[in-house]
Amino acid sequence: MKYILLQLTIFITSISVNAQTLNPFYQSVVAQVKFDSVQQKLQKFQDFGIKTVGSPAHNNAFDWLKSYYKNYGYTTIEQQSVNVSGNIGYNLIVTKIGKKYPDEFIIIDGHYDTLNGPGANDNGSGTVTLLEIARLIANIETDYSIKFIHFTGEERGLIGSQEYVNKIAVPNNLKIKAVLNIDEVGGVKNKANTTIVCEQDESNPISNNAASSELTATMANILPLYTSLKTEISNAYSSDYMPFQAVGYPITGLFEKNETPYAHTINDVIDNLDLNYLFEVVKGSLATLLHFSEAKQQLNTVDIKNETLKLYPNPVKDMVYFSEPITNTTIEIINQNGQIVFSEYLSTPTSQINLKQLQKGLYHVILKSNTIQNQYKIIKK
Ligand SMILES: [Zn+2]
Question: Which SS3 state, helix, strand or coil, does residue 6 take?
Fold first, then answer.
């Protein structure tokens, strides 16, 4: 008997663009952020004391940061000397190579120098955010490369970041897809710290402002999916993302909504911030970085990929076709915000799907059965 191909067409009718569905893999990583781990690192940071550039406290903090990355298996760890009014400080630059786009970078950064006090909030909060993320993302495969950068000299006029842009990023024509700056995200004790400010580029030049808005809007959508925080969008200013935006790179940033009154004083200590708030910010920053770098779930549990199964055409207008009919398979379509916009179990052999209802943009299509797990990127025209 000749096998007759059963052509079934699924019409996507169940799309809800407002569905706040999270990426289960990203959620599983975010769930591993530990309150105690964040707290202990912040205590350590505080205990170094006042970390002005050139001080022993600054240099001890630098050595601690460097050894931290070594301990988690990072191998590309570089330092850049920065002259801050005659005192030498160091930027720490740690690179994790992406699988698909090794020469395109997502930078996550925060300064670690402090002024007049131990800087638990400004910017111990950003520093430990980077460290906790580095702990959890160390063994996760990402499409894009990631650079963790701990800048020095921020408090003296963004000197460390300016030096990095002038002497490394620009001369090497570094392809930077996004700069995510974390500065003062510890909140204020005894206040309702429920909102985080997502900062977009509203400065000259304006050529990179649209890209910054898109990154920032994406982050503002992601944070409430993985945390208890509300988000608000405002303008970026006066922190280490500014030298990047000035030369045209797309930037975004996080900043606390209730601004600490203790910055640059001896009272910028853990007791005066809100660790529960910081804990949420760490989770949201991690989810954002997983999304920006296009982190992939390790497929070693379902290691049978069907290499011959293709989707076409791509870009797609309405109908997308499978190169062979699939059955007993779940299809999930995920948008750029990590939201599942379509999910269906295909119980009968299926060769095409109508994507007419999808908005224009980039989507991930995941096909899962007992025997395969394939992922595709498609562009909807
Ligand atoms: Zn700061």
Answer: coil
